[in-house]
């Protein structure tokens, strides 16, 4: 009989099988605030504190890349006041958290169309990348003004241009060429997430890393992002460790 493997908090993580790349759709800030009769931006503020907690926890567990969906290409549709607040968050975050990032040997990376962000946001983000450039531990990779369909269109245009200019033959377009043209290419062999987490009970991908999650394990939790804790991350990783990843093949030793 098929039985679902039980996960409980007493189980310990196998530190030799920590996912290299964890990506998170941080959802539920608005609902967290609404439940407390607070404005939505109070949820984003609290969500930013969760980013700090989870960054430290992931780095201490040995995660190599932590990708966080901080602002999507669709988030511009939100009320102006909320968009402005979201644009101010990187400044608030980096203004006091960079020393802790450095202490944890974490470097900052950003993917998305940065040139469309307010100048001040671009400035603080580029400064954080610069300030942490010597860190060679975990990469904290923010998706900012990121949308996966847009990323795929940009990659396609880039490849088409290379073909048109005679630098690439159509027959040579393969997965590696395509991956190299995506915004995750700088992450090298860790470009594809091993584990994708979405908080708040929604079970969809919302235009996030569509190419890169082809073989990712998906983990959905009802917890709202501001309530997500280091123990929640461990639970997600424990669940990941109980999954059989076959990448389209068959299980070995069976
Ligand atoms: C989704 O929740 C969350 C966002 C669109 C923003 C996420 C941003 C943070 C968690 C802070 C980022 C921090 C830095 C440093 C950039 P929602 O507002 O859609 O929640 P709801 O579905 O409950 O309304």
UniProtKB/TrEMBL annotation:
Cofactor(s) demanded: Mg(2+)
Alphabetized Pfam families for the sequence: Prenyltransf (PF01255)
Top enzyme category: transferase
Family matches, as InterPro entries: UPP_synth-like, UPP_synth-like_CS, UPP_synth-like_sf
This protein's UniProt keywords: Magnesium, Metal-binding, Transferase
Alphabetical list of PROSITE patterns matching this protein: UPP_SYNTHASE
Residue positions binding Mg(2+): 27, 217
GO cellular component, one term: cytosol
Binding positions for substrate per the UniProt entry: 28-32, 40, 44, 72-74, 76, 78, 198, 204-206
EC identifiers of the protein: 2.5.1.-
Active site: 27, 75 (proton acceptor)
MF GO annotations: ditrans,polycis-undecaprenyl-diphosphate synthase [(2E,6E)-farnesyl-diphosphate specific] activity; magnesium ion binding; manganese ion binding
Database matches in SUPFAM superfamilies: Undecaprenyl diphosphate synthase
Subunit text: Homodimer.
Family, as annotated: Belongs to the UPP synthase family.
Protein name as it appears in the record: Isoprenyl transferase
């Amino acid at each position: 009989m098929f039985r679902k493997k039980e996960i409980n908090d007493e189980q310990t993580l196998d530190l030799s099988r920590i996912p290299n790349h964890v990506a998170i759709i941080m959802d539920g800030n608005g609902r967290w605030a609404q439940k407390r009769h607070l404005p939505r931006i109070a949820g984003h503020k609290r969500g930013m504190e969760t980013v700090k907690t989870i960054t430290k926890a992931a780095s201490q567990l040995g995660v190599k890349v932590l990708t966080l969906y901080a602002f999507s290409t669709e988030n511009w549709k939100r009320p102006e006041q909320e968009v402005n607040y979201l644009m101010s968050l990187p400044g608030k975050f980096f203004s006091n958290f960079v020393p802790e990032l450095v202490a944890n040997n974490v470097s900052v990376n950003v993917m998305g169309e940065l040139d469309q962000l307010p100048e001040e946001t671009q400035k603080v983000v580029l400064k954080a990348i610069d300030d942490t450039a010597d860190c060679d531990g975990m990469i904290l990779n923010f998706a900012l003004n990121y949308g996966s369909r847009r990323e795929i269109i940009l990659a396609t245009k880039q490849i088409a241009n290379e073909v048109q200019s005679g630098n690439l033959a159509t027959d040579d377009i393969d997965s590696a060429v395509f991956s190299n043209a995506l915004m995750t290419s700088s992450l090298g062999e860790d470009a594809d997430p091993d584990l994708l987490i979405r908080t708040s009970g929604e079970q969809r991908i919302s235009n996030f890393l569509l190419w890169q999650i082809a073989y990712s394990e998906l983990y959905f939790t009802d917890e709202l992002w501001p309530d997500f804790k280091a123990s929640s991350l461990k639970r997600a990783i424990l669940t990941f460790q109980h999954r059989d990843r076959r990448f389209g093949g068959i299980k070995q030793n069976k």
